[in-house]
Write a structure and sequence with these properties.
The chain is mostly helical. The model has no long low-confidence stretch (mean pLDDT 87).
């Protein structure tokens, strides 16, 4: 099986940041959008939630709420990565959307032998779970570790969990390596 060329979208370190990478804000949707209908929700929500094999019940009516929450999380994430406080009044509308989704019923975990499964998962519960992850991330100390990949042609979000707090790339295999190659060439290393 060929490697997924979009795999780096799902390596941010948090489900709510991976959620952003499914299309981002409306102005980026034409280029990045993965969610067009219920089938896309069923395909991508398990990946975003880091729950492969999860069978989510979704309908086309779930697409607009998905996009509404994703837009709010996107705006918050990039603002926080730029150093804004989640308490900034400019972000109040987006915070209200996240809080509204977080106040609903999340996915309900259950033991299934030696593994975890979810009880009758729906798209609405998946969105509540993602909203709660955003509340936890942006309302806690890890918000200081939300970054945008330093590659000029990337822009993906990441959570820097490195001990020194100096992670720069969404993926060392792609963006980090390309940056090192560019730096080497600019120093005259490759002729």
């Amino acid at each position: 099986m060929a490697p997924d060329p979009d795999a780096r979208r799902w390596r941010s370190g948090r489900p709510c940041l991976d959620f952003v990478h499914s299309g981002g804000a409306p102005e980026h949707a034409a280029h990045w959008e993965l969610i067009h209908d219920a089938a896309d929700l069923r395909r991508w929500l398990p990946t975003i939630l880091h729950a492969p094999g999860l069978e989510i019940r979704a309908s086309d009516a779930d697409v607009e709420p998905f996009r509404e929450l994703r837009t709010a999380v996107t705006r918050l994430a990039y603002a926080v990565a730029a150093g804004a406080s989640p308490a900034d009044p400019v972000l109040a509308e987006h915070i209200a959307v996240v809080n509204r989704f977080a106040a609903t019923s999340p996915l309900v975990p259950a033991l299934d032998g030696a593994s975890t499964t979810f009880v009758a998962p729906t798209a609405a519960q998946a969105l509540a779970t993602l909203a709660r992850d955003a509340v936890d991330l942006f309302g806690g100390p890890l918000r200081e570790r939300v970054r945008v990949c330093a590659a000029p042609d990337c822009g993906l979000l990441l959570l820097d969990t490195s001990r020194p707090g100096n992670r720069r790339w969404c993926s060392m295999q792609r963006c980090g390596t390309l940056a090192k190659v560019r730096a080497h060439r600019s120093r005259g290393g490759a002729r």
